[in-house]
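Dear support,

Our group has been running a series of protein-ligand predictions, and this particular one with iron/sulfur cluster is the one our PI (initials K.S.) wants archived with full inputs and outputs. We had some confusion internally about which version of the output was final, so please treat the block below as the authoritative record. The input we submitted was:
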Amino acid sequence: MPELPSVESLLAEAVEAVGGTQRPGQVEMALAVERAIRTGEHLAVQAGTGTGKSLGYLVPAVRHAVAEEATVVVSTATIALQRQLVDRDLPRLAKALKKSLGREPTFAILKGRRNYLCMHRVHSGAPDEPEDEGLFDPFAISRLGRDVKRLHEWSSDTETGDRDELVPGVSDQAWRQLSVSAKECLGVSKCPIGVDCFAERARAEAGRADVVVTNHALLAIDALEGYKVLPEHDLVIVDEAHDLVDRVTSVATAELSTAALAVAVRRCGRQIEDDVADQLSESGEGLEIVLSEMPIGRLDAMPRALSGALAAVRDAAHRCITALGPERKEDPEGAVGRKLALAMLDEIHDTSVRLLEAFDGDEAHRRDVVWLAGDFRDDSKPPTVKVAPLGVGGLLRERLFAPRTTVLTSATLTLGGTFDALARQWGLPASSQVRELDATATDKEPPSDLSAPRWSGMDVGSPFEHGRSGILYLARHLPTPGRDGLPQAYLDEIVELVNAAGGRTLGLFSSMRAAKQAAEAIRTRIEYPVLCQGEDSTAQLVKKFADDVRCCLFGTLSLWQGVDVPGDSLQLVIVDRIPFPRPDDPLASARQRAVEARGGNGFLTVAATHAALLLAQGAGRLLRSTNDKGVVAILDPRLATARYGGFLRASLPPFWTTHDPEVVRAALARLDDAASA
Ligand code: SF4
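Confirmed final output from the archive:
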């Protein structure tokens, strides 16, 4: 194959083809990714909004895939970014580079098996819970029946079977009727649908593609579980990498509930002797009695009663698995029922074992945290037992970083000015160095721990002039937030700020309760419309907010990360309090304790890091294009006064900072005038 053009010239071609302008940060990023590919040294790149980050990594990745005839995996946290890559960036890039690369690069999207319609279930009609059959007619006029009927009709129209392409969507319950998890799938060689299966087709297409776009969950399953779901690849680009640890933790979290045990018993149906299934049923009843007497929350030791109940569940599940016996040559319908039962029994058995082993050894060396989850207001349902890893760094280091080169990128990767906090969570050795834009790519000393993966961090900056375009207002005069809702002074402050801004406000609250309280309280005091999360789908609310410049939108977590509204509709971001994890959050509190048990600072490592990441994401909602201007107002005075405030402030974009409410209101009024002119 002839020598391919350099990354720089390919990037210039790509930028010209999409009608953009070259930005120094984007060029630096592309060169750094190219170097990572060449040297095998992992790379973390912080690239602010507007850098053109996706082209910054796609160009070197595509060049590498074509040159080496290799596959590159790009992983995202959100469907929105996945769609942007597959529907916009990659098609344009493929066309733009076709001539220079000698052929048009190819790409494909790959999701978990559960996301595709299972045509075998569509044809065989194998129900999820056989004895629920009598409870409803799947084609009856019920929501579930209508959804399942729609799915049957859709199955003959769709070309991909991809759930995300079904608009409007169907309930999870309906989708579960006609889809399978990887463990429930019969396997392509045994399934009568075989190669016509949507999931198999998507996999085959991904195996032939230069770039495979996937999500963090599937990336985690591929890396952590025993079976390969992604095609062979030697380079992974993790976009939205600030979310990687949470997504991997979710994949590695297991739960055990009495409802799941009841479903497993039903799935066993007539496939095993009644007395064996009865033992599983009885173990479920025993677990229910124990759980209904326990409080919700983290467990620091395994209570004897729970240990006994879990051991009974483990043994009963094992007996059912043995009774189902080794695989037989049966008709495919029988095989489906057996597979569905086995998948559930295996999970119940393995989770019981994991729970029983979670408290082995001393606290500093435990790997899992266990808690009882449930609704404490509804004691009709027994809680669920959950188990999650305290950290996923070890797993990522061994299964993600060791086998291949990884590039991690996001607008928010440095906290308190360094990559250390996130690097630690990823299992990479800390390095206080953040390579700046003008530094060379070779100036970093190798890490002292030579067995540790080598990596470098680079901040390519942002095209925004934060100091000129944005004000960070720290309301130092307000009281510290308490537990009993928003203080009156906060509501008064919100009214004054929103009035000065003429609406145009995104309110980011640390709880749904606070968002609702603020929305209700200020609706009677301002003349602008106030939308609150939960009143419609979040996508619809964001659209209304973007379309009406006078509108305000209040909400919680998903708005902190998911709102992208450039222009005059968003000139004020209000944050009510520093978003520390709740003190009763079992995972965060256990992680904090584990750090302390090893002699570290649990609060800074866990709680402050969590808050810093969310605050940076929330503040990042303000400037979405180079012409945007506005204010980020943080009402919680601790950001200005507490000792950890410096770390949190250093995690925010470098806005011009003030404590003076009059200065802020005057600035907002000027912006409102300018936007209204
Ligand atoms: S291979 Fe698996 S997912 Fe595909 S149709 Fe068969 S059972 Fe369903």
